[in-house]
Amino acid sequence: MIESNGNGVLHSSVLVLNRSYLAVRVVNVRRAFVMLYRSAAEVIHIDNGTYANFDFDSWCQWSMFVRDNQQENGDGQQNDWIRTVNLRIQIPRVIRLLHFDRLPRQHVRLNRKNVFARDAHCCQYCGQSFPPHLLSFDHVVPRSRGGATEWENVVTCCLTCNSRKGDRTPTEAGMELRRHPNRPASHPLLHIKLGNPRYHVWRPFLGQSGSAIDVG
Ligand SMILES: [Zn+2]
Asked: Are 97 and 197 part of one and the same domain?
């Protein structure tokens, strides 16, 4: 259904709310449009603090209206667009699930991607940053010594340091952690997203309960 317009906008993010307007996760544009097209979700459009709800068809009509209006006024609002065969549709920033009352996650999910994000993709032993495929997930106290898989005992580690450390504690290996690992109170990627003006409209939905939602 959707063609990329080559600007990478399909990689932009959409906040998903449950029926009660609580943030439950962040998805990519393609996933958001699939949910809209299947009537599993509606668009929540925020304009000067006022919310408006749109289904897929009315959102397409709204998009055409905005596009025509922009052309007339020549105003360059910060909207992203995608093109389908027949339409040019504005990318929504927030959608709301119509059928599910999934509750917001209370704790950030522990997985490789989120640990790497917490540690800013820096090896916690040598301090260098690497792309994800050159990183591994190190148990500070090895599992063979009873070390648990929990935020306080896992760190981002480059392949060289991982191999050097082996099945030892940092002290035994003569290696020092740059920072003591902690459980993040909110999703590390969310802060990065919220620094981008296009996602400022998410802020009213991200109270304490929404901060641990999955991103990406
Ligand atoms: Zn390293």
From this structure: yes
Q: Which two tokens stand for residue 41?
A: 């979700």
What would the pLDDT profile of 124-174 be if each residue is shown by its tens digit? 999 999 999 999 999 999 999 999 999 999 999 999 999 999 999 999 999
The number of CA neighbours under 13 Å toward the Cβ of 145 is 12
Question: Distance (Å, rounded) from C-alpha 114 to C-alpha 170?
Answer: 22
The predicted structure's pLDDT at residue 55 = 95
- pTM recorded for the entire structure: 0.75
Can you tell me the distance from the alpha carbon of 168 to that of 66, in angstroms, rounded to the nearest whole number? 60
Are both 162 and 64 inside the same structural domain? no
The dihedrals phi and psi of 145, each to the nearest 5 degrees, come to -105, 15
Number of domains in the chain: 2
Q: 172 alpha carbon to ligand 1 midpoint, in Å?
A: 16
Ligand 1: distance of its center to the CA of 160 in Å? Answer: 6
